[in-house]
Design a protein that fits this description.
Number of strands: 16
Strand content: 15-25%
Helix content: 10-25%
Number of helices: 6
Structural class: alpha/beta
Shape: globular
Radius of gyration: 19 Å
Distance between the termini: 12 Å
Strand order of the largest sheet: 2-15-12-14-13-16
Number of domains: 1
Length: about 375
């Protein structure tokens, strides 16, 4: 199966619709809690250390608004897919459960590699312009849209969770089942959604990640059907075969790129984030493994392209929840993972998000970002 056979490119035109559908996702419930966040006294650069700050603003209803090892990189970021991470217990169970500080994948994995010292790509200005230098960052997650939390949900299960069969539309690029999907697993957009309908399951005890795209329960969840599916070992971070999709258009895992409340509450995100753009190139760059476009233009971002917030961008005046995200964007950046609305940043739904604070991210222009130097672009 060649990469362009999957119907991902068509989703670029429907990006806004998909983003809106995601806003109906289920989420973990919780009470408003204080959390620590970087609180700089002046402009924050990627090397600034976080200090304590408290959240005080109450959540407000909003339109769809998107919710380790370190070391400086001086060369192109690779896939980092063979090192095994030490075993570590996860936290609780259920939808949106805390991962208890667990770093998903080894420290050497691309998701966990800092890029604040990496060189800028020579075509950065052109690529940023193609996404929209004058457009704004858009957090596609939060506490309240259309009556509830929204974003891309996940559920944590025990190693004893019963596995069920999954029938795939694109079976030749999907990892065969069975998958440990609970009958009541949260679906992106909700049970009646017609968008991406991602289902993400973390096996706490075996430290494996199961992700489905276009997932629908069959016979009350006794089995599932899905467009595609992928399984990732959280200890090794092994990549998909070259040219394979996953539950995401870029062939990447979704969960490692989500903004999660437990991390923001702790005051630090130690990994890259996931975002979408409306037009992509027919090509991919590491760590991506798959493209979703028929346009060969080098002026468009390939899947896997990473951008970072410029070190000169002053995050000091942003509220605590937004500031944690912005510091992560300066240190780790965000990776093009799918076709969708431009500059839409993905996160997990949670009732404890402060939408007023998250909405401050909408003040960040595309011109505040730069493309991290890419390696070879796979185009065939």
């Amino acid at each position: 199966m060649t990469p362009v056979t999957l119907p991902r490119a068509a989703r670029a035109a429907a990006g806004a619709v998909l983003a809106s559908a995601a806003c109906l996702a289920l989420a973990a419930c919780g009470t408003t809690e204080a959390f620590t966040a970087p609180a700089p006294s002046g402009p924050v650069t990627a090397s600034a250390a976080p200090t304590a700050a408290a959240s005080s603003a109450a959540p407000t209803s909003s339109a769809p608004s998107a919710t380790g090892g370190t070391g400086t990189v001086t060369a192109t970021v690779g896939a980092g897919r063979s090192t095994r991470a030490p075993a570590r217990a996860l936290g609780g169970l259920g939808p949106g459960a805390s991962l208890a500080g667990l770093r998903l994948f080894p420290a050497s994995n691309a998701w966990n590699t800092r890029v604040d010292g990496a060189p800028v790509d020579p075509r950065s200005a052109t690529l940023i312009a193609s996404i929209g230098a004058g457009d704004r960052l858009h957090p596609d997650f939060g506490a309240n849209w259309d009556g509830g939390p929204f974003g891309i949900p996940y559920v944590v299960v025990a190693g004893t969770q019963a596995k069920v069969p999954v029938r795939f539309e694109y079976a030749d690029e999907s990892d065969r089942g069975p998958y440990p999907v609970p009958r009541n697993a949260p679906v992106e957009g909700g049970a009646a959604a017609d968008g991406d309908r991602h289902v993400i399951v973390v096996d706490r005890d075996h430290q494996r990640l199961y992700e489905l795209y276009a997932a629908y329960p069959v016979d009350g969840g006794r089995s599932w059907r899905a467009g595609s599916g992928a399984v990732f070992d959280l200890r090794t971070g092994a990549s998909r075969p070259a040219g394979w999709t996953s539950a995401d258009a870029a062939g990447l895992p979704i969960l490692p790129g989500l903004v999660r409340y437990d991390e923001v509450r702790a005051g630090r995100i130690d990994h890259a984030l996931r975002f979408t753009v409306s037009r992509t190139r027919k090509g991919y760059v590491a760590p991506a493994r798959h493209w979703a476009s028929s346009d060969p233009s080098a002026a468009l971002p390939p899947m896997g392209m990473r951008v970072r917030l410029k070190a000169s961008f002053d995050v000091s005046k942003y509220p605590p929840q937004a500031r944690v995200v912005l510091v992560a964007l300066q240190r780790y950046g965000m990776i093009v993972a799918d076709n969708g609305s431009d500059w839409y940043l993905s996160g997990a739904p949670d009732r404890r998000w402060d939408d007023e604070q998250l909405n401050a991210l909408k003040n960040v222009p595309g011109s505040a970002f730069e493309v991290v130097r890419m390696g070879p672009v796979t185009t065939r």
